[in-house]
Amino acid sequence: MARMSMHHNLLQLLSNGRFHSGEELGRELGVSRAAVWKSIKLLQKMGMTIFAIRGRGYSLEHSVELLESHKICSEYMTNKDRNLEQLLVLESVPSTNSYLMERIDNDWVKPRAVVAEYQSEGRGRRGRNWCSPFAASIYLSLFYSFDRGVADLGGISLAIGLAVRKAILSLMPCELSVKWPNDLMWKGKKLGGVLVELSGDPLSECKMVVGVGINYRMPNGTNIDQPWIDLSSIVGDNLPSRNELTGALIESILDACSVLDNSGFEQFIEEWSLADAVVNQKVSLQLGNKRIDGIARGIDSLGSIRIESDGVVRSYASGEVSLRVTE
């Protein structure tokens, strides 16, 4: 894990889109040309596209907006009664979720959040890796303490997925849906996802760390093992600020957590029906070694997916479920 370093200052200099020589960059940063070269190579290794042309110097593929806590807070703190206890912006970290999970303290009561420019071991659902190039996406994890127990939070992944969708739509209206339980989709392509980790008593207070990944402007040639999309491809140059989007995500997720804690998942069922990416479509559900084919019929009051198979509708809620729309 590392806080902001020379990479941050280097990218600030390169963000104007012009070519800069190694000598010029070294002079501005107070380091040698060799140190600049090493920093460039490390950023390229972390997924950034930086052009290096002899005689001209270095240039970014496109301008980059780096995350800054004061800018995120200025967007987030529209309700001062729900201030975060802490908002930490990191340059790199193995996983933002792991960072918070390893540090949870019994004395934590107020929400906390961590965002990173880069994850070396980003995690998705079911142990999958989450592709996390430097400054190309939003990598956000948030801690929240619930008065409800784990057993009473069955629909939490869906509620968070809806909150992420709501935050994005507030800044850039587009056709976003949510594929059960919480994949953000645009016309059949994955835009982002949610990873919820709960700990505590099944019947009383529990603590949550939720991780959110949103593809913002991914590098050309990014290799992901499923159809995917980023915000840049959807809206072109009309992208919202990364800081603004991060603030909107924090605010929307905290709103959803408050509603869930006070009123339960039932408050989200109608919204889900409007955002459901697979309702009334043929689906395939992988449950362990068993595969279930049928028609998706929405969700039940606990957030479980309802699938009609052989004329019978059943609910499925296992955390190991994998859902795929059939051709």
Automatic annotation (TrEMBL):
EC number, as in UniProt? 6.3.4.15
Q: Which reaction does it catalyse?
A: biotin + L-lysyl-[protein] + ATP = N(6)-biotinyl-L-lysyl-[protein] + AMP + diphosphate + H(+)
The UniProt record lists the BPL/LPL catalytic domain at 81-261
Example GO molecular function term? Answer: DNA binding
**Entries under InterPro entries matching the protein:** aa-tRNA-synth_II/BPL/LPL, Bifunct_BirA, Biotin_CoA_COase_ligase, BPL_C, BPL_LPL_catalytic, HTH_11, Transcriptional_repressor_C, WH-like_DNA-bd_sf
Report the DNA-binding ranges: 22-41
Which keywords describe this protein according to UniProt?
Answer: ATP-binding, Biotin, DNA-binding, Ligase, Nucleotide-binding, Repressor, Transcription, Transcription regulation
If you read the UniProt record, what top EC class would you report for this enzyme, in one word? ligase
Where along the chain is biotin bound? 95-97, 119, 123-125, 190
A GO cellular component annotation here is: cytoplasm
Q: Which GO biological process categories is it annotated with?
A: regulation of DNA-templated transcription
Taxonomically, which superkingdom?
Bacteria
Q: What does this protein do?
A: Acts both as a biotin--[acetyl-CoA-carboxylase] ligase and a biotin-operon repressor. In the presence of ATP, BirA activates biotin to form the BirA-biotinyl-5'-adenylate (BirA-bio-5'-AMP or holoBirA) complex. HoloBirA can either transfer the biotinyl moiety to the biotin carboxyl carrier protein (BCCP) subunit of acetyl-CoA carboxylase, or bind to the biotin operator site and inhibit transcription of the operon.
Q: Which family does it belong to?
A: Belongs to the biotin--protein ligase family.
Q: What PANTHER family does its record include?
A: BIOTIN PROTEIN LIGASE, BIOTIN--PROTEIN LIGASE
- Spell out the NCBIfam families in the cross-references: birA_ligase, PRK11886.1-2
Give the protein name, as stated in the record. Bifunctional ligase/repressor BirA
Q: Which organism is it from?
A: Solemya pervernicosa gill symbiont
